[in-house]
Every structure is written in structure tokens, then in C-alpha cells.
Amino acid sequence: MIFAAEEVAGADPSVLQQELSIVLLLAIGSAVALIVKRITLPYTVALVLVGLALAFLPGGLIEFDINADLILFILVPPLLFEATLHLPWRKLKADLVPVLFFAIGGTMLGTFATAFAITQIVDIPWLAAVAFGALISATDPVAVIAFFKSLGVDKRLGVLVEGESLFNDAVAIVAFTLAVNAAEPGNSFSLSGAVVDFLVKGFGGLALGIAIGWVVAELVLANVDDPLIETTTTLAAAYGAFVVAEDFGRIFGFDSHFHLSGILAVVAAGLVIGERGLKNTSPSTRVSLNHFWEMLVYLVNSLVFLFIGIKIADIDIGDLEFNRVVIAAAAAIVVVLSIRFVIVYGFSAVLAVLIPKRRIPVPFRHVAFWGGLRGAISLALALILAERSFEPQTYNTVLIMTFAVVLFTLLIQGTTMTPLIRRLGLAGTSENERRQQEHQARLYARRAGQAEIAKLGHSGVLFSEMASALSATYDAEVRETSQDLAGHFRAHPELELSMLLQARRDALTAEQSALLELSRSGLVEIEVAEHVASEITNRRSVLDLIEQRWEQTPAPPGSHG
Amino acid sequence: MENAEVIYVSWGGNGAGVAVRSAFEAALERNASLLYLAILDEQHFGDLDDIHVSLVVDELEWLLDAQLRLVANQLNAERHPARIIVRVGDVYDELDAVVRSTVCDLVLVPSEVGETAGAIAERTGCTVELVSSTLAR
User: Fold this and answer.
1) Is A45 inside a domain boundary?
2) Which of A56, A101, A256, A320 has the lowest tally of Cβ within 10 angstroms?
3) Residue B116 belongs to what H/E stretch?
């Protein structure tokens, strides 16, 4: 029997319509993912293009209220949390000064320099220009990090770009909020007040995130061994850190307008759980946790980039003249690129003098400059403007400038990142690594087949002549694949140490799992198993150090850089 | 030379697999045993506490031993004498100490740090040659 939507108990047609829209968007996202496997277009860029096209579909098919709250409160927290969960703290700590230098200094300088330059070209109020400068300073690393992974780029570059982005989101939001609040009637802008506000919100958010992350890592993940409960707890931590920070005053019963930085709370919680919590989980939990977050982030990213396309195509320029639209869009792109150029190259040069050991190599600077894409945060903040105190002509201008920059960075910079990375010689060994993995996968699969035939032969399911014949065929295949793998390593000896490190990590994980089983079976006391397991944890932890430092290109003794 | 050793010294670096293989081949050519000396120098590991340094030494010994076995296997030289020493400290001091404790025939240095060859030869009194860390293609 088929029910009409209204006949389903309590069903709200608008809810069903939104559900249908989500289902369609996910189906479209999957189709795009399939198509980009066959063409050389980044997934995120393809989603934006499809989103732009979707806006021209007949009305009613996809009706979804894409607003700032949806993006900032629902979609951004899991993206930030997952990014920090896998951001190696040791590597981030090693580059924390450059990262914060770019995230705080770069964002503040970028905000005001952009505002100043824009007001010289486009006729908008100073505070609206500051709001634009702030929102457009929030870089979005999703697309760039995907390129880094697929091209095997040096992990330090990924940490620098991702670290800057995670922290500059928070700085940009605080600066944006201050500018928007100051623009409201009766309010004014005070630099000292802004600094205090920034410090309270920033450090408060970080402290809250650390506290939530610590509770989850040390009280839940360390004491519970259940993948479902542990994974659910990390999801609660991601959203919980954000919600509690943003609603801090109301939850704790004082000033309902008082809030902390939700973004920094999520970043801190993710870092603590990634660094301390994941070490406290069993290998099986880690696998399910990784799968869950990978899936969630894939879904959220698919929606975010489709939304960006839909929202940009749906822009209403109101009473703005065409000339003003073109000038504002072009000016925004030129100004934002120029200021990014000055910040990246200027700050890198300063850092090279201040901390020569952590100088940023010149090719990294090119990637950091051209890889400064803008995405969900910029879009969400621009949408907030429409609800606040600027004149329609002003916020329409800011919207156009934002959309122009987001679109330019995603479509032009996003599609040229891969050739740039290759041209700079930063593409690592990923192609060789991929081939190595193919050889390994084939060998693994064929060995499994070989074992199954042997089992069937032994059990008598296969008669002996057939089992022998099949085994001989498999033996030849396994031999051939083994030789291919060995040949690949001979041709690419640079893969050896990475492979040895990975194998060692897996072997140590297996050693820990075996200890867990041993203590569960009661053959050794749990304290003994834990003691030996902690030794293994220590050994595993130094593998990161070895990978990070031993695999660096050697420099003459006593030299720096 | 009886019990002569070829010392391959490294303090990190990508492409070490190629250099290790070249070093092994040089030892085979000279019928000398290979000593792979890995040094955790101040520049890269100086900020670590003693516990971490000790753990890194243990793990690096394990990994480099496996790497050496792999290279020996690839060169069909499993029975050829080869060993790993991991030391912590100044590259020149540690290399000098190791050279003095062995019958050193040759010191091999990765070509990326070729500028150190002169200083090493002067300090140790040993012949120094460079080994490439990249494959000739």
C-alpha cells in the first residue's frame, strides 16, 4: 500500500520536502564523485559547478533553506573536528609559531588591509569593509588538503596550511562579529575592547575545548572499550564543544549574550582527543572511529560545496547597477589575492629571520599563497550580514564580493593547484606508493585465494587433482606478484623506510591487540598486560618522530634549515 | 685488509634506500663488511629528553636492521657481514669514535651532504667517498 505524504502519521510536507532535497543532493554528490573519477576535476570544484547548475532547475525539486546557522552550527563543527582529530600534534607543535603568526597576525593584517584597499575602490562603509576583510580572511583548506593527500605532498606543508586555516577561522569570526556589532546603531568600535573580547573568547574557547576533549579522552575513551559508544562520544564532543562555547552565558546562567569561540573549542577538543584519546582506544575502535568520521565529513563536504554553488547562483543583486557588480567583484578578487601575496611572502621572510630552523621553503610559500581558497566560513559569514544592520546596497555588495572571491579561488585556484604542486616538484612519491599498494593488494588477495583453495582441498570439498591444479596456478600468480612487488621496491628504494615504518606500526598495533586478548583470557594479569602495552605505545609514538625527523633531507652538521 | 669495514654514515634523509644499497655494493666490491652508522644529531634530535632518545635509538636500530636485511636480500648477499650502530651526539665526534674502534677501509657519505667529506676525511684520517641517494635513471 502506498501512502500519500500527508497520510503518514504526523508527517509535515515541508519536512518531507527538505528530506527529499537532502536525498537528491546526496544522490547528486555521489554521481559527481563517480564522474570525477573519470575526469581531471577536483571533487569539490565539480560540486560547486553542479551546485551552480542546480540553481537553474525548475523550482520545487530542491528546496532547502541554506542559511548561515545551518553552515556554521551544523556543517562546520564536524569538518573542523575531523581535521584536528588527524592533525599530528607534534608536527603542529613544531610549527605552532608560524601557524599562529599566519592565523592571528595574517588574519588581522589581512582584515584591515583588505578593508582599506576595498574602500579605495568600492563605495561601502568602513565597518562593512572590515567585516568583508574578516570574513574573506578565513581560508578553507578542504580542497587543498585533498590535493596534498592525493599528490603525496610533504606533511609539513599540509600541517602549515591546515593549521593556519583552523585557527584563522576563529580569528576571522571574532573580527567579523566585532565589526558587525560596532556597525549596529548606538555601538562603536573600541580597539582595547576588541582585544579583550578576542582574548576572552579565544582563550575561553580553547580552555573549554581542552576540558571537553580531556574528559572524553581520559574518562571515556580510556575506560570504555566499545566502538559504538566511543564513536558516539566523539560526535557529542564535536558538537558539544561548539554549542556549549557559543551558548556559554545562557547555559551557565549569567549574561545570555556572553559566548566563547565555538570554533576554537572544537579545534581544541579535536586536538586533545586526537592526541590523547586515540592512543587510549583499541585498534578496532580506531578503525570504526576513522570510518565514521571519514563518512560524515564526506557527506558534509558534499553538501557544503553543493550549497556554495547553489547559493552563489541564487544571488539577488537587488538595485545594484551591473557596473558596480563587476567592479566590486573584480576589485575583491584582485585585492584579496594581492594581500594574500603580501602576507604569505612577507610573513615567511620575517619568520625565516626570526626562527631559521622553521623557515618555510620557497615552494611551500607559492602553494600557501595560491592554495588560500575560501569556502564555507566566508559564505556563511556573508549570509549573516544580510540579516544585520547594513543597508541592502552594502550587504549586496559584500555578498557579491564574497561570492566572487569564493568562486574564483575554488574554480581558478582550485583547478590549477595540481599542476602548480607538480611544477614545483612537491608531488611526492604518491604515484609510486599507489603502485606499490596495488602490488601489495594483489599479493594479499592472491594469498587469501591460495589459502582458501588449500583449505577446500584439505577438507575434501575439492577433489585432490582440482585442488592441486588450482593451487599450482595460484602459486605461479603469487610468485609473479611477489616478484613485481620486489622489483617495484628495487626501482623505488625511497619507499623502503616509509613502508618499514608503516609495517612496524601495524605490527606494534597487532602486538597490543594480542596483549589485550591475553589479559581477557586471564592468562596474564591486566596490570602486566597494560605495562607491556604501554611500552609498545611508547615505541609506536617514537615512530612518528623517526618519520618526521629521520626522513628529513640531511643537512650538514651544525647547519640550520 | 683483514676485517676491514666500510662505514656508511647517515644522519637522516630521504632516498636513504638507494644510498644504503650503494654502500652495500661498495662493501661487497671491497670484500669488506658494512657498518651502517646512524647518528641522531643535535640539530634533529637535540630537543628530546633521554627517555625519548633511548626509545628512538631502539626503534631506529630495529628499522635500519630490517632495511639492511632487505638490501642484503635484494643483492643476494644475506651472508655478507653487515651491522647497524646508532649513536647520539655530534656527527664528527661520533663518526671519529666509531672509526677509531674499527679497521676502517672507507667512509661513505650521502651525496646531499658531500660538502662534509673533506672535514670527515681530515678528522678521521679515512678515505671518504660519496654515495648517491638518487637512482640513476
Assistant:
1) no
2) A56
3) none
A437 assigned to some structural domain: yes
The pTM score is 0.65
Would an 8 Å CB–CB cutoff place B81 in contact with chain A? no
Query: Which of B63, B70, B73, B88 is the mutation pick for testing A, counting most A CBs within 10 A?
Result: B63
B8 in A contact zone (CB under 8 Å): no
Both A402 and A461 in a single domain?
Answer: no
Residues of A in contact with B10 (CB under 8 A): 554
- Judge if A248 and A261 occupy the same domain: yes
- Residue range A256-273: average pLDDT? 91
Looking up residue A187, the CATH number of its domain turns out to be 1.20.1530.20
State the Cα torsion A22-A25-A26-A27 to the nearest 10°.
Answer: 120
Which A residues 540-559 touch B at CB under 8 Å?
Answer: 541-543, 545-546, 549-559
Q: What's the CA dihedral at B60, A84, A278, A70 to 10 degrees?
A: -160
Task: For residue range B57-85, list pLDDT tens digits in order.
Answer: 999 999 889 888 988 988 888 899 999 99
Backbone phi, psi, residue B84, to 5°: -115, 140
Pick from A84, A504, A402, A311: nearest CA to B56: A504
A256 in contact with chain B, both atoms CB, cutoff 8 A: no
Q: How confident is the model at residue A6 (pLDDT cuts 50, 70, 90)?
A: very low
Mark yes or no for CB contact A497/B135 under 8 Å.
no
Q: CB–CB of B112 and A486 under 8 A?
A: no
Answer yes or no: is pLDDT of A30 > 60: yes
Count structural domains, chain A.
Answer: 3
Residues 427-466 of A with CB under 8 A from B: none
Residues A509 and A453 in one domain: no
Q: Kindly state whether residues A527 and A507 are assigned to the same domain.
A: yes
CB–CB of B113 and A555 under 8 A? Answer: yes
Q: Tell me how close the Cα of A275 comes to any Cα of chain B, in angstroms.
A: 17
Q: Is the pLDDT of residue A55 over 50?
A: yes
Residue A9 domain-assigned? no
* B118 close contact with A: CB closer than 8 A: no
Average pLDDT of the residues of chain A: 84
- Whether the CB-CB separation of A513 and A283 falls below 8 Å is answered with yes
Enclosing domain of residue A280:
68-428
Check if CATH label 3.30.390.10 holds for domain B5-131. no
The shortest CB-CB distance from B63 to any of A500, A558, A559 is to A500
What is the least distance, in Å, from the CA of A294 to any CA of chain B?
A: 30
| Whole-complex ipTM | 0.87
Which of A139-153, B55-69, B79-93 has the least mean pLDDT? A139-153
B59 vs A543: CA distance, rounded Å: 7
Interface of B with A in 10-49 (CB under 8 A): 10-18, 20-21, 38, 41, 43-45, 48
Residues A133 and A164 in one domain: yes
Query: Do A281 and A252 share a structural domain?
Result: yes
Whether the Cβ atoms of residue A446 and residue A478 lie closer than 8 Å to each other: yes
Using CA atoms, how far residue A288 sits from A311, A486, A536, in Å, is: 34, 32, 22
- A163 within domain boundaries: yes
CA dist., res. A263 & res. A415, Å (int):
28
Q: Decide which of A411, A428, A445 is a domain's last residue.
A: A428
The answer to whether residue B6 scores a pLDDT higher than 80 is yes
Same domain (yes/no): A180, A258: yes
**With a CB-CB cutoff of 8 Å, which residues 503-522 of chain A face chain B?**
504
> A53 Cβ partners below 8 Å, 6+ apart?
A309, A313
Residues 6+ apart with CB under 8 A from A284: A227
Same domain, A286 and A241: yes
